[in-house]
Amino acid sequence: MALDSPRLSFVLDQVATGKIQLPDFQRNWKWDDERIKALIATVTLDYPLGVVMTLETGGEPQFKARTLTGADSAADEVPDLLLLDGQQRLTSLFQALRSGRPVETEDARGKKLRRWYYIDIAKAVDPNADRDDAIISVPEDRVLREDFARKVKLDLSTKELECAAGYFPLHLVFDNTRVGDWQRGFVKADDRNWDVWSQFGDRVLHNILSFQIPMIRLAHNTTKDAVCSVFERVNTGGVPLNVFELLTATYAGDRTYRREFRDDYRLPDVWGDIKKRLCTEFPVFGRFENGVEDGLSNSDFLQAVSLVHSWELKQQGRAATVACKRRDLLRLPLADFRRLEPRVADAFTWVGDFLARQCIVRSIDLPYRTQLVPLAAVRVILEERTDEPEVLERITQWYWCGVLGEMYGSATESRFSRDVEQLVAWRGTEDGVPDTITEAAFIADRINSLTSRLSAAYKGIYALIIKQGAVDWAHTEEPLTATQIAEQNIDVRYIFPKSWFARHNPDDGRQSSIVNKTVLSSQANKSMTGSPSSYLKTLARASGMRAEWFDDVVATHLIDPVTLHEEKFDRFYEDRSERLLALVEAAMGKRVVRRGGAW
Questions:
Q1: At how many degrees (to 10) do helices 389-404 and 412-425 cross?
Q2: Which pLDDT value is given to residue 482?
Q3: Secondary structure of 198-220 in the HEC alphabet?
Q4: Which pTM does this prediction carry?
Q5: Which of 512, 404, 415 lies closest to 456, judged by CA?
Q6: Per-residue pLDDT at 539
Q7: Cβ burial, residue 569 (10 Å; 0-12/13-18/19+)
Q8: Comparing 10 with 507, which gets the higher pLDDT?
């Protein structure tokens, strides 16, 4: 790493000729008009601007590069330096002082503008004036208007008008010939301007021409992981750099691929096609519409690929661990990504089917998105063996231990690696049981505090209620299916309604527990007003069933109907708690932990 301080004029020349470019993971320039004026004022005063950071390319950039906004004519040049930090400042200064074109910016409300920047010479040389007030911007036609554009406030549309008004066009500042020509016009407009120009040269032009940019230069062999880390540290005020963006720029600059296909590899397009296909078939993965996505992320997909790739390398003795941390993703060669990408995409299709069999079909109902990463990797490695009953049973136990034991809430990357290796190696014996299964525990009292779908265990329990055969109370023909969950607006509903508690025990905190909730359609929920004994009669009549038959439907939700008819909430709560805990035990394949530590 080296530090030097080149002059601003030299740096902007490098930008213009393409010797300084951006790595393609950099986001677009977006400074507004007011910030640009403040930046120019800073330079004219020779105040510190802050350090910029660059990465030497060594003639072969690690990443695909692109020119700074406004330097498009240099797009075919191979850069010497990639700008990691300072894009907004250098692009603003390049456009305003060097490009010779109007600056494409926006106002405070986001309205697009094309502006030229000027400095009021009289205010600039006045020691009592605020320099910020001396910097102005005018529209592309160089006429500033007011009163809803009906009156001309300032006309700078010709050099003569600029000189007469005393506004120097800042886009000329590094062109000595044009500055000299403008000076002559300024003096010609008024003989007294000689002294004013002399002061302007000393107090403003000299500062701009001699202005230096402190620049850190990272060596060309700096690792991608280090580049990513440095970029995040110096861009703490912006959006954190995504590994996907870094790999996008890396893969787009892959020379082998470009030689073979005469084009850039477009990682966002590849991922977009995968995500659209997955979301169309399985809403549990979220959505992808008009470039906006949620749910399963591009980083999740990359991590799954990395887990498989590192597992392969470990089998070959070329890697010590199975891993998917940032540095591992950044070391993933394009050739290996292209080889594994379709297999991982197909694996996520299998994951979607697996989740549907667990009665988890909507993204809002997914307990942990992160747990899908090792699940997909295991599918790639084991292939069709994951469909063998014994293997599928083990994977299902692992999945529910992760959900109900709430094991995937933090520090997931190390768990990813362990789970992949341990699930692949597990043969169903007592030896080698994955840590996620052995470490998972469900404390019996936890069921009282499961009150919202923010908890993975909360989502897991109501998925298990559906899975074990719950029948909707308004659509009683058959147990709930994945299709009905979406079509009938199946959601968690109160069994003893809030209105019942308001009359009988308004301070009972148990009313919000999942014990007092079940999964029902919106149609059923509309009838569930008043007391349980009352709404059960209404629902039974609507179903056309005899009352005792409808009680059998209620019982499919692990509820004793008698406790509802008699409105014995304490008895209901105790009975259903035990039924739900038994459901948890069956899914996890192990006993819940009772008060006092007994199993």
A1: 160
A2: 81
A3: HHHHHHHHHHHHHCECCEEEECC
A4: 0.75
A5: 404
A6: 95
A7: buried
A8: 10
